[in-house]
Write a structure and sequence with these properties.
It contains 18 helices and three strands. Strands 1-2-3 form a three-stranded antiparallel beta sheet. The protein has two domains: 38-235 and 351-374, Citrate Synthase, domain 1 (Orthogonal Bundle); 242-345, Orthogonal Bundle (Cytochrome p450-Terp, domain 2). The longest helix has 27 residues, at 130-156. Helix content is 59%, strand content 3%. The chain is globular, with a radius of gyration of 22 Å. Helix 2 packs antiparallel against helix 10 (188-201). With 395 residues, the chain is an all-alpha fold. The protein has helices at 9-14, 45-51, 54-63, 69-81, 87-94, 97-102, 107-121, 130-156, 173-182, 188-201, 208-218, 223-234, 242-258, 264-273, 293-307, 309-329, 336-345, 353-374, and strands at 31-34, 37-40, 43-44.
Amino acid sequence: MATAPAISKEQAEAIYSRGLEGIIAGETNICSVEQGGLFYRGYEIHDLAQHATFEEVAFLLLEGHKPSAAELTRFKHEVVAERPLPPFVRAFIESSGGWLASGRAVPMDVLRSAVSLLGHTDPDAQDNSPAANLRKSKRLLAKIPTIIGHMQNVIDGRSIIGAELGGDPSLSHAANLLYLMTGHKPDAEATKVIDVSLTLYAEHDFNASTFTSRVIAGTLSDMHGAVAGGVAALKGPLHGGANEAAMEMLKEIREFVDAGKGSVNDFMQNAFATKRKLMGFGHRVYKNGDHRAPILGKLGRAVAQKKGKDFLRWFDIGDEVEKIMLRDKKIHPNVDFPCGMTYYTLGIPVPQYTPIFVAARVTGWCAHIMEQHANNRIIRPLSKYTGEPLRKWGT
């Protein structure tokens, strides 16, 4: 691929955009985020959510094409075989309960460290060849749900579930994640909701965490280091942590209303007046609405309707919040808003929402890391200096 001719710093300053908004920072054949749709290697997200399983989507992203039946069977066997954790990584997770209970660490911190530790035992850790990177991608895809499940067992004070096999080999990726966390095999509806949510979260072009991973990979650093960087970036409440923050905001609104302090609109108007950041709304690219949000919202509401009025009320409040945001601010929800309510309805602890996001997005990160390594140019932008003018030290 030919590189663009270098431009002067003065020319670069003329096209400066804060936060790189509107700036094309590279090329990819993995994903396209557009006003009219979200596409994974040419397949539109509604089509994938309706007709593909997450394992098929993971194959598509990592291996580059839609799998045949034989290829999918082979891929599933490869991933299931990699689910168990090395003993010392499991021991680290078991030792993390005190940090999590004290608040000195949150699940995303433990997950980030566990990913780094996996790099110490991976036989391909220092090999950035395409074949080695693909093997590492499958291992990370397999082991991250195991990390999340074991971590939740520690938080709940229960024995590690599925330690030897990384869960139940007969369960799908989505079902096994829930089983590892709870010890109960989920029903078909819960499995479908998680499976679709993993598909929706799997990839989103040059978002903050993926770009972080590509920057790290661009130095020819290793897969585990680049993925650990992605986890660190995703933790932030302006990125992956928004689904947790959105649910906490909904809890606050419901408590406000139930305490007789006012209506949902009263809460929202006060939030507007105090310039409070309302999580789960707006998107840097989507200006007319996030294509993923209604897919997950519909699935979540269907689960809530079956579970009863108390759960359905979360979605009723959420609908009010959405209408007020659109009416007063012309801002649509992004996928994190219905995600919070949906995961809450399924009984998933709020601090695990973003780690589950990692279980999906690791496929996108790994695909981008492989793409960066395969056709690399170190990512090194310029900066616009705003400090003091030239001055002398010795006067």
